[in-house]
Design brief:
It is built from two helices and twelve strands. With 221 residues, it is mainly beta. The strands form two sheets. Strands 1, 2, 3, 4, 5 and 6 form a six-stranded antiparallel sheet that branches. Strands 7, 8, 9, 10, 11 and 12 form a six-stranded antiparallel sheet that branches. The radius of gyration is 23 Å and the shape is globular.
């Protein structure tokens, strides 16, 4: 689906982000009380969030992520999309879920602009390929070297809603993790392997007799 509901979370929205892109204030701004409702995705574009605004009895359904905070005071410094969000949507079909183990974990993310954001894990948005028979799938959702998740948290210092893929995140559990982490040696998983690496095609079970004998079939022909 292009749209998914989100967990109930109280938020504050920069007023200018409710007035169209030409009026966005990336720095200090007046804040409006709201509640997260949902999110929509379009391939190759940014997420757009729906927020309920109780004081106005209204729902605004295209809030940009950089305008969403969990604090009633916006920070003085500028916070732009490059600070809080890695990658555009790789598919228009999305799913929202919790990673249960991480729900109480502290997370850290180094942004594309070199800043360090950290906070508590909130939820994940993942991408799915198009449904069968719905048309050609142009997404990268099933190509593992390009597949990205969006793991969301509110930055402790600024309050902004931030997200990043797993390879840009640190997950920290006080009871499981040492104080100083090792440097990752991991490489990107780049292949979409079949279950049998040495056989691109196979019939029945490899190494066992078929239900019929191929040689006899050839003789019949």
């Amino acid at each position: 689906m292009i749209y998914q509901s989100l967990p109930y979370i109280d938020v504050w929205i920069k007023k200018s982000f409710l007035m169209g892109p030409e009026n966005f204030k990336w720095g200090k701004d007046e804040m409006i009380k709201g509640v997260l409702v949902g999110v929509k995705a379009t391939r190759g574009s940014l997420f757009l969030f729906e927020v309920f605004l109780p004081e106005y009895h209204a729902s605004y359904d295209k809030v940009v992520q950089a305008g969403i905070f969990n604090k009633s005071e916006s920070p003085d410094q500028e916070i732009k999309l490059d600070d809080v969000a890695y990658w555009d949507c790789i598919a228009g079909d999305i799913e929202v879920y919790y990673k249960a183990l991480y729900q109480t974990m502290h997370v850290q993310m180094k942004t594309k602009t070199g800043k360090m954001f950290e906070g508590q894990y909130q939820f994940t948005i993942d991408f799915r390929p198009s449904a069968p028979n719905s048309g050609v799938d142009f997404s990268q959702a099933n190509w593992w070297s390009e597949h990205k998740q969006k793991n969301f948290f509110f930055d402790e210092a600024t309050g902004v809603l931030a997200c990043g893929p797993n390879n840009k995140m640190r997950y920290i559990d006080e009871s499981l993790c040492p104080a100083i982490p090792k440097k990752p040696f991991f490489k990107v998983y780049e292949q979409n392997y079949l279950s049998h690496e040495t056989h691109s095609r196979f019939f029945g079970d490899i190494g066992k007799e078929f239900d019929y004998d191929i040689k006899k079939e050839k003789e019949w022909n």
